[in-house]
Design goal:
Blueprint: H1 7-11, E1 17-25, H2 29-37, E2 45-46, E3 49-50, H3 51-55, H4 60-63, H5 78-84, E4 88-93, E5 97-105, E6 112-114, H6 118-121, E7 130-140, E8 146-156, H7 159-204
Antiparallel strand pairs: 1-8, 2-3, 4-5, 5-6, 5-7, 7-8
Length: about 200
């Protein structure tokens, strides 16, 4: 018996490193998925960690797309990332899962990003780069609760880059884990709020 096919398995099936966080959310799948899919990453906080900061979502293309001075976006959803940065929305299965991905030289002090479109992502092997995929998936856990998963995978395109990525991952892994925890916490809280609002509307009907 095999489990369901996941987007992350399609786009990065053989990672060199990965990290997964899972939580049981007191909200149905519909509300939990909506909370995750519409999440504003600038709202995610976890101590000194911010999701927007970890994603380091401000490459030159984003900051200078209007030929203006560098600025921090006031809202940053998955769709915003796809529209205005080197991150690509690789896939979206509404009500189930979505995945974001990018290529880059993550080990550099200032990341050199490379946008790779969804159709080319799995086969992207240009030397000198790493690939990263962050996927969010929801699974029903009974009628009123949801199993929420945030899953990040990274891989290098060549042996030399793998050595650099390995050193970088050792240092970055705790921060990535903290961000996963913050993401899970924020998504779960937003999902519960959505569920309570939906129940309230039902009671008033």
């Amino acid at each position: 018996m095999t489990g369901p096919d996941l987007l992350i398995d399609h786009f990065l099936p053989h990672p060199h490193f990965e990290l997964v966080r899972t939580a049981l959310v007191d909200a149905p799948v519909k509300e939990t998925y909506a909370a995750a899919r519409e999440l504003d990453f600038t709202d995610v906080r976890g101590g000194a960690v911010t999701a927007a900061g970890w994603l380091r979502m401000l490459p030159e293309r984003w900051r200078n797309r209007h030929h203006g001075p560098p600025r921090r976006p006031t809202r940053l959803t998955a769709d915003d990332l796809d529209a205005g940065s080197e991150w690509t929305l690789l896939g979206d299965r509404p009500g189930s899962e979505f995945a974001l991905g990018a290529a880059g030289k993550f080990w550099k002090p200032v990341i050199v990003w490379r946008r790779v479109e969804a159709d080319d992502f799995a086969g992207f092997e240009e030397h000198g780069y790493g690939k990263i995929v962050m996927a969010v998936a929801v699974f029903p856990y009974g009628p009123h609760r949801t199993l929420l998963t945030v899953h990040t995978r990274v891989a290098a395109t060549d042996p030399e880059s793998w050595l650099k990525l390995r050193r970088h991952w050792r240092a970055a892994r705790p921060a990535v884990g903290a961000v996963h925890t913050a993401l899970i916490r924020t998504m779960a809280a937003n999902a519960r709020q959505r569920a309570l609002a939906a129940y309230a509307r039902t009671d008033q009907a």
